[in-house]
Automatic annotation (TrEMBL):
Keywords: Oxidoreductase. GO terms for molecular function: FAD binding; oxidoreductase activity. The keyword Oxidoreductase applies. It comes from Streptomyces albus. PANTHER family: 3-(3-HYDROXY-PHENYL)PROPIONATE/3-HYDROXYCINNAMIC ACID HYDROXYLASE (PTHR43476), FAD-DEPENDENT MONOOXYGENASE (PTHR43476:SF5). The keyword Metal-binding does not apply. This is FAD-dependent oxidoreductase. InterPro entries: FAD-bd (IPR002938), FAD/NAD-bd_sf (IPR036188), PheA/TfdB_FAD_monoxygenase (IPR050631).
């Protein structure tokens, strides 16, 4: 079969939250988009373990895209964040207490989010062609500028010619590698990896709380899922999964029960094999330049973060919301668009990078706190959490960069039920 060639103003590689949100935002502005996604939509709802926690700021961004009403039925609102260290509660944060319009994080399965974004995109004035499965394997361009992408599909090869190619293809981005933007990227391995699994939700647990349980140098996250289960992220030392597997499934159940005795029964019933678990190797990637002529990176491809405080989806959505209007203005220049697009991409990085850096710094501080192991260090950690918990101003200072970076305090005197759209 001969190669097919399609054309668009923008080619988006990757149909995760970032790529889908950008396609929607551009289509709303009337721009033509081709989106390539390597996963086969015919093969079920996709992987079970992907970012599901959407921060209050992510809700704000979805609302701005006109997508919140579409997904709110599938979202599970979270009211509290609770940290227990050595069996004692050291921090209890109520999201309703924050003085922002969008206060509550939600748990939102990625398949529901992605299909809502796709459905909305199809209703916009700008044409968006989605090719899936289609895997980008090469960049096009004779000179220094990228002019599109070559992708492989089950029916042959497709060339997409576009004024701009966007690498929204995740933490192991092919576009980043092929464009050379990954050459000076700094990858930092964190000390821990996370084993993810889902269990029945303990009946006596509040279904609207995030829980962090710490004991010595070990910790786990317990996040309520929209489907009524609890998503567990158990931290293991880097490379420790092999050791854990060698010890057997019972060792994993014991580790969980030691951190949260309430899940002991659920772990016995709900954890039947290693295929019920998924490992996330934790690293952060800092990419010095997010764009080159004809190509730009977005979401995890531009800045992979750790899973602490569920930041990845939010930043991918924020990137898309920032980038789309800049591209729209640049594309409006017609023949001079190449240079204008380059400037737009540089502006986008300048506007987005500080918020990403603040999240990364907050995550690294939090990771260090989690991994403090000696008795003296653990006492210090507990004292720190208690100090933060005791002061509303300090709570806001610590948590605002994670949960409310795009919002200003306001609506302070009105009850949450009246003002919060969640
Ligand atoms: C187990 C796990 C749990 C997580 N939990 C959370 C959480 O609770 N909250 C949170 O905010 N974040 C979480 N994250 C991170 C979050 O999922 C990501 O930060 C977020 O999805 C980034 O969005 P993205 O669109 O940039 O990239 P991705 O979601 O990774 O999407 C990239 C897309 O590109 C496609 N793709 C890749 N290569 C190609 C190619 N060559 N051609 C075509 N398509 C390609 C992929 O199939 C994928 O669909 C978690 C991640 C994992 C793995």
């Amino acid at each position: 079969m001969p190669d097919e060639t399609v054309e668009a103003e923008v080619c988006v590689v990757g149909g995760g939250p970032g790529g889908r949100a950008l396609a929607l935002a551009l289509a709303r502005l009337g721009r033509s988009v081709v989106l390539l996604e390597r996963r086969d939509p015919g093969r079920g709802a996709g992987p079970v373990f992907r970012g599901e926690s959407v921060s209050p700021d992510g809700v704000r961004l979805l609302d701005g895209l006109g997508a919140w009403e579409q997904v709110r039925g599938a979202a599970h609102r979270v009211d509290r964040l609770e940290i227990e260290d050595a069996g004692r509660r050291v921090l209890d944060v109520r999201f309703a207490d924050f003085p922002y319009r969008y206060r509550h994080p939600v748990e939102l399965p990625q398949p529901a989010l992605l299909s809502a974004l796709a459905e909305l995109t199809a209703r916009q004035p700008g044409p968006c062609t989605v090719l899936a499965p289609a895997t980008a394997v090469a960049l096009l361009g004779a000179g220094p500028a990228v002019t599109g992408v070559r992708a492989v599909t089950p029916h042959g090869t497709v060339r997409v010619r576009a004024a701009l190619t966007v690498g929204a293809d995740g933490r192991h981005s092919t576009v980043r590698r092929l464009s050379g933007l990954g050459e000076r990227a700094r990858r930092t391995l964190l000390e821990r990896d996370v084993v993810w699994l889902k269990l029945p939700h303990p009946a006596d647990w509040d279904r609207r709380a995030y829980r962090v349980r710490i004991a010595g140098g070990s910790h786990a996250l317990f996040l309520p899922c929209a489907d009524g289960r609890v998503r567990v992220g158990l931290n293991v030392p880097k490379g420790g999964l092999r050791q854990l597997r060698a010890q057997g499934l019972d060792a994993l159940r014991r580790r969980l029960a030691a951190l949260a005795p309430e899940v002991a029964d659920a772990a016995r019933e709900g954890l039947r094999g290693w295929s019920d678990t998924a490992l996330l190797d934790i690293f952060t990637t800092e990419v010095p330049r997010w764009s080159a002529p004809g190509v730009v990176l977005l979401g995890d491809a531009a800045h992979t973060l750790s899973p602490v405080l569920g930041q990845g989806v939010n930043h991918a959505l924020a990137d898309a919301a920032e980038l789309a209007p800049l591209l729209d203005r640049a594309l409006a220049e017609g023949r001079g668009a190449g240079r204008a697009l380059g400037a737009a991409c540089e502006t986008y990085q300048r506007l987005r990078e500080p918020a990403v850096a603040r999240s990364r710094a907050l995550q690294l501080r939090q990771e260090r706190l989690f991994t403090l192991a000696g008795p003296g260090a653990a006492v210090l950690r507990r004292a720190l959490y208690r100090t933060v918990g005791a002061s509303p101003a300090l709570r806001r200072r610590v948590l605002a960069p994670a949960y409310f970076p795009g919002q200003r305090p306001g609506d302070r005197h009105r009850p949450a039920a009246e003002t919060s759209p969640v």
